[in-house]
Amino acid sequence: MTLTGCADSLLGFILVTDMIIVASSDIATCIRATALQGVALSLLPIVLWGQHGQLIHVATVSVSALVIKALVIPWLLFRFLRSAHVRRESAPHVSRHAAALFATALTAIAFYLARVLVLPMAMPSTLLVPIALTTILHGLFVLISRRLAITQIIGYLTLENGVFIFGQTLVSDMPFAVELGMLLDVLGGVFVMGVAILHISREFDHVDTHQLSSLKD
Amino acid sequence: MLIALLIVLPAAVGLISFAVGRMRFALVALSATAAFHAVTTTLLVASSPRVAPVGMIWTLDAPGRFFLSILSLLFVLVTLYTVSFLSNATREGTPVPRHFVPCLLWFLTAMTVVTTTQHLAILWAAIEATTLTSAPLVYFHKRRGALEATWKYLLICSVGIALALLGTFLLGVAASASPAGGSSLLLSSLEKSAPGMARPWLKAAFVFVLVGYGTKMGLVPMHTWLPDTHSQAPSPVSALLSGAVLNCALLGMLRTFQVCLAAGEAGFARQLLVVLGFGSVAVASALMVGQRDYKRLFAYSSIENMGIITVGIGLGGAATYGSMLHALNHSLCKAGLFFVAGNVLRAYKTSAVHEVRGALGRIPLSAGLLIALCFAIGGTPPFGPFMSEFMIFRSAMQGPGLFFAIPFLGCLAIGLLGMCGVVFSMVHGEPKSDSPPLKEPWPLLAAPALALACVLVLGLYVPPLVAHAIELTARSLGG
Q1: Which chain A residue lies closest to B228 (C-alpha atoms)?
Q2: What pLDDT score was predicted for residue A28?
Q3: What is the domain partition of chain A in residue ranges?
Q4: Which residues in chain B are contacts of A148 at CB distance < 8 A?
Q5: Which single residue of A7, A14, B118, B175 has CA 20 to 30 Å from B64?
Q6: Nearest to A181 among B122, B170, B176 (CB)
Q7: Are B266 and B195 in contact (CB under 8 A)?
Q8: Hey, is the C-beta of A26 within 8 angstroms of any chain B C-beta?
Q9: Secondary structure percentages of chain A, helix, strand, coil, to 5
Q10: What is the mean pLDDT of residues B167-186?
Q11: Which of the listed ranges A193-197, B11-15, B142-146 does the model predict with the highest average pLDDT?
Q12: Within a 13 Å sphere around the CA of B64, how many CA atoms are in the beta-carbon half?
């Protein structure tokens, strides 16, 4: 397969995982989809920039992304899931079928936006910007439409993954330490949020953020 | 070199005190680090060249120097208060979590990175780190409300800040269109390539950065987490959140504003800033009237003041100087107010306004400080905020004119009256039970008193050293 073909199929795969995350109500499925998305993401730097003669730099970015996004974060999420005693998103604000429809509409919007905003530099794949925007919009949609704290973390991760895809446009100019700092921030975020979930489930006997509404004016 | 020390040392001390885990050790380590931070910052600010060297990731330019100095001063005050606060908590049987002091130190590290870096991606990572290191601090009083506030803080700010990262990347994309340079995210190279940047991408970048860091600054309508978090956090943490973190987020936003200035797109950015800032002032001052929780009251006042600062930067000219001066004034006042709020909480065990009566009889010194600080932040002479708000108001008269300046002044007046109304109902009246005056440890009074003294000095006369630092900062922000 050519390089463009590789990049396109990876990005297509990311779109599929996006759809699974939005439309599935089984939390374990969502976490597995996140892990798969992490694998695809971590291959992107190599496919997009591997030819440009910075192989070591690009490969280190890929490996650290693989470890953090495809292994450590899903593992953490599974641990938090087990201790939170929930398996399904039983009553989301938007039903599963409606969510799938919304996700499709958001994808269309993202592709339209990407046609309007043309990248000033040449990239191996024309799908990069639309898929990045799609992932960001899907992440935001999950954040709004779900009630359980753990699925909201998944929404945040999806959003962050979308930003990561967009960041691929700049990989060659980014020092590795900066790249690593950003990955570690996401890891730290998931960890601290997960610990908060543990406390919430112990204190309230549920992880439904809709019921976290005692503070108001 | 000194910068590296300033960043690494607090982080290392944090690790050590986490490993040791003894309260007494942690408090000594905290005090020593605060003193070290203040001394090193003074040395750094005195020794750093007036014009920052170009092309370096770690260096102090005028805004960095200014905000680092505020941070360091504030951290000393917070440490003074925290040591006494935690000793009291231990004595009264409230368990202090082992991670409390280490998180405070890592929090300081993250904020120091924000002020000392010139690389916008590192800046982003550090601002996200401030959220992560301060979230465990919010959950100090193990109450349900505190847990709810921690969750909202983490989720809303992380999402907002993720959008700011998108904005930062968009800035890099915009720069790659410029003939003058690559897509490096160093501030100096971005400023160099700014005139040739792709306009739609630059504008999109500023919008995303403003929404993202605006969330962390508490600008309306992204402010929803702020009153909850600042009211539920323990008082010294609220002081740090209001006085220092909001400034860090502001600095993050200003960095992109600097690029817009260099690109000649300041007009677009300024319009957005004025609209968003004025909205924050209006909404926050309306919500302060009749507020039932005094810590929420001070949190809304933070939103109002961040709005004032944002409006000032948007107006430009002399207002930029005014809004930087106001950032300093607000940090000091708000830290002082949250310290006093902690003292009131200590005496009355509640943050509900209607249960606090007769504070002047019960805790006379704290109540006096509360009244003075309330007038100060409300913008009455002879305190500092009056001067800075007046400068911004004058620019509003000269720039947009009466139709903007009068509603702006009206909102400020509503905020002042709302705040005074609530505070007076707390300090006057008869205490519910016949309780004798409570003895207050001196550090719990010294910290807010020092803050008040600084604000008073700033209102009467701005020392030339400070004025010069603010002037240089304002100049790099187009003032």
Answers
A1: A215
A2: 94
A3: 3-211
A4: none
A5: B175
A6: B122
A7: no
A8: no
A9: 80, 0, 20
A10: 86
A11: B11-15
A12: 26
